[in-house]
Design brief:
heterodimer; A: 40 residues; mainly alpha; elongated; B: 361 residues; 18 helices; 80% helix
Chain lengths: 40, 361
């Protein structure tokens, strides 16, 4: 079992789905202005 | 390390416990990643202040190097392991966010070029690995796992195929160790070769995305060259990952026929199950960026979030490599993997250079 699959074990959503949810949530927060000034 | 811990089933935990279990490892990823970034900045500041010409070592290499040092000199304590395993989650989140840097038309154009390259590479690497497996007398299933790992997307593809062809844990461990060791090697060889050949960011990115097996290492190999190269490497590697279902299904059918079984269930459902869903998230964010859903500032914020996610990934790449564990796996699978990978890297380099003459990349 891969690290990813192990992490994802017994979870309703796949690791991919969680990654997409986190990314879209962050992008949404940036879009509505709640997250800004992210520097690198 | 990846191999032995990968195959042990964890005990079931409640959600809050699971979350708490992740924290130490995620904190370690952040500390190692930030350490890499601070080292790069400090050295640059020091050399500027003292008018010295010091080599500019990218934060990617520092983060991987610190991770390697911790993993191989001090060892990684059990408490950190669940959190370190999240590096793949950060990688996928980072890729989805990176979709904001692509206009959909670019995705399809470069994606189409990548697809052609990947299809040629796929056929060649499967044929080559099968041949090498026979020459070195590896078990046929181990050969299949190495072929899938080197042609598609490293560890995930090996795990997916292991279940589909009913291979042994030991064979999967061998194949994973070989692919991880060679991925680590690619990190240190691809960038100098790219520089020596004077490759453009786009060409190099295409090469890293088609030539390096594991997604995290492919992105890191791209980032070691430049941000632009990392972007293209992600696109090429994502195209490659999208084909995982077809290859796994092909091998599942082949092994079922060879062992006189039949593959149960709907083939379309099988393909969908194996399809990496984060690719859809990447395309969605890219589509939103293409219709100007985000302002320029917002796009820059999203791209920076993606870099932070990749920083955690790069730290994880170093922390998960343990040379002692890899040595335990034996020389032959590594040798087959190494010969195959060197030939594949040369072939993909040739393909990328030829493609650049045919299509404007």
């Amino acid at each position: 079992m891969s690290d990813a699959a192990k992490l994802n074990r017994k979870s309703v959503l796949s690791l991919d789905a969680w990654a997409v949810i986190l990314a879209l949530t962050l992008a949404g927060l940036v879009r509505i202005g709640l997250v800004k000034h992210i520097t690198w | 390390m990846a191999t032995s811990s990968v195959l042990t089933a964890p005990r079931p935990l409640s959600w809050p416990q699971k979350f708490l279990n992740l924290l130490p490892g995620v904190a370690l990823l952040a500390i190692v990643g930030m350490g890499g970034k601070l080292l790069e900045q400090s050295i640059a500041r020091y050399s500027k202040a003292h008018h010295l010409v010091l080599p500019n070592i990218e934060y990617v290499l520092w983060a991987i190097g610190i991770g390697l040092l911790i993993s191989n000199v001090f060892g990684v304590a059990e408490i950190f392991k669940p959190g370190i395993a999240t590096y793949e989650f950060w990688l996928k989140s980072g890729i989805v966010l990176l979709g904001s840097r692509f206009i959909l038309a670019d995705v399809f154009k470069l994606g189409a070029v990548s697809l052609v390259l990947v299809l040629v590479e796929l056929g060649l690497s499967i044929a080559l690995m099968t041949l090498l497996g026979r020459v070195f007398k590896l078990s046929p299933k181990l050969t299949t796992l190495l072929a899938v790992g080197s042609s598609i997307c490293g560890v995930s593809a090996i795990i997916a195929t292991k279940g589909a062809i009913d291979a042994d844990d030991e064979d999967a461990s061998f194949a994973i160790a070989a692919i991880l060791a060679l991925g680590a090697l690619a990190l240190f060889t691809f960038p100098p070769i790219g520089h020596a050949l004077g490759m453009s960011d786009r060409l190099y990115g295409l090469w890293a995305g088609t030539g390096v097996d594991n997604t995290a290492e492919a992105v890191a190999a791209g980032a070691l060259y430049s941000d632009a190269a990392a972007k293209i490497a992600v696109l090429a590697k994502t195209t490659r990952n999208a084909l995982i279902g077809f290859v796994v299904l092909g091998y599942a059918l082949y092994w079922a026929a060879r062992e006189g079984r039949s593959v149960q269930g709907n083939k379309a459902a099988f393909l969908w199950q194996k399809f990496p869903k984060f690719v859809l998230g990447f395309l969605l964010v890219s589509a939103l960026a293409s219709v100007s859903f985000f302002s320029r500032d917002q796009l820059s914020n999203i791209a920076n979030l993606s870099k932070w996610a990749f920083l955690l990934t790069f730290a994880g790449v170093g922390l998960k490599i343990n040379f002692r564990d890899m040595r335990k796996q034996g020389l032959r699978p590594f040798l087959v993997g190494a010969i195959g990978e060197v030939v594949i890297a040369v072939i993909t380099l040739g393909l990328v250079l030829v493609a650049s003459k045919v299509v404007k990349i």
